[in-house]
Amino acid sequence: MKTIEASGLTKYYGSLLAVDNVSFSVKRGEVFGFLGPNGAGKTTTVRMLTGILRPSRGEVRVLGYDMLDEHEKILAREMMGIVPEMANPYVDLTAMGNLRLMGELYGMGKREIEKRALDLLKLFGLYERRKSKVRAFSKGMRQRLILAMALIGDPEVLFLDEPTSGLDVISARMIRDIIRDEHRKGRTIFLTTHNMAEANELCQRVAIIRRGKLVAIDTPEKLKTLGKGLSVEVSFEPMVFEGSAIDSALRVEHRGDKIRIYTDDPDATIRELVRYAEEKGLRIVSLKTLSPSLEDIFVELVGGKDD
Amino acid sequence: MNWWVVRMIKTLKRSFAVAKKDMLIFYLKGPVIIMGLVFPFFLFLAFLIGRHLSGEQLFVGLTAMTAFFTSTAVGPTIIPWECRGRTFERLVASPVSLTAILLGDLQASFYFGLAITFTIALPSLAYLSIHPSFGIFLLSTLLAVLSFSAMTVLMSSYPPTDIPADVMMLSSLVKFSLLFISGIFVPLRSLPPYGRWISLLSPLTYYVDALRHALGGGYLPLPIDFIMLAFFGLAFFFVGSTIHGRVLERRFT
User: Which of A13, A279, A285, B48 is 20 to 30 A off residue A143, Cα-Cα?
Assistant: First the structure.
């Protein structure tokens, strides 16, 4: 069963075409990643899917409800949890107050709200601060609270627009763990992210959008097969390397204390590297062959620039 | 139960949740205190000092100014503040219609206006030893505060800004223009004919006139005062909601 269906979604801002004829569907229980450079149309697409923006053309159905119909949109949202990009909780309310407000907006009963809110505050590590005004919260705590607010209504589908953007490692990891848990519970998750490792780790399928158009949609592993060539990563001690020393190298990148060499022939490259280390008296600290990462594919598809 | 009734109850419950949030957050904001409490107090002093006014005239002036300024103090800035604080998209994305959100904002203005107006007006009645028709006073105050609160829905609709000061400036301009044409400072019967025609464009005129009826005076027929207050309230809410709906996307782009 399809939880999200977008068909021919198009959005103009005046004469600017922000999203161009985008179609895809997300299956029930799937974690679907939506990737793209800044300005590619990700947030506009999420806003159309959640009924915040009305498409200039096209149709959206979430859980079978027509998101262009005002009444059906409200019914669909009762089963949706939404974390908009750059959203804040109310800083003049307490953490509990924010959750209570969302529970009331979801039409929940008072007891149900209290129980669910306390469970979520514990889950997100905010229980001790439940009576504190959000003004005193860090960015990570606020983002955890925003996600808790999205979960208050026990939604069937979650729309998360950059949920870990700009967060500290602990908060980002906690949010990723919760996304995994929510997926295990059978929720459908639509995740917009800049973080390729996150998309690779969490998503069963990803779509890549560029300049308002979908340029790829598939599983992360299948997308990786679109990449050109393999690479070999090596680290020497001491770290001395001349790029011209390896004849089989297509491109050489310095990455911290490592060198990544893109090649069509990893076997020849490894032999050359070993020979080079012997000639120069270097110790090989690490040596590994790498297939293209999702990030490599992303950069290849979007051209390495923002839109 | 009829599905339409269920839908209405759901909308009203959720709009009340929005109103509660507004009351908790916005009532204590500086501009609300200044424009809703401090400012009308000093305006009333300016109205009072150096003039030999009867108790009835004082009561009408004080009550009308309090109702007008308090019920229009909160509403206009709620949505710009929400946009500025990046909370509005979260609110719009929840399972409530835009109409329910605006109805919640209207209620926040209504409860604030009503509470302050009665807090000021009732002791004033005792202090000034005047005895208005309580039914007319109550009904006209309810309708007037509702109408002024609905006016804030219209005031906050355009321009779709996230700068509260912009909306405050525009709403102050409108409020002061209405204050001086509504028969508070110069009674309707003393205005020149063109002034009387202009005064009919202000909802405040009908409230001031209804208050005078409550004290045995009044210029326009009392049913007209009630009908016009209700009409202005409905028209402000309808037009305001329509404009909000049209400019909503501009608040996110």
Answer: A13
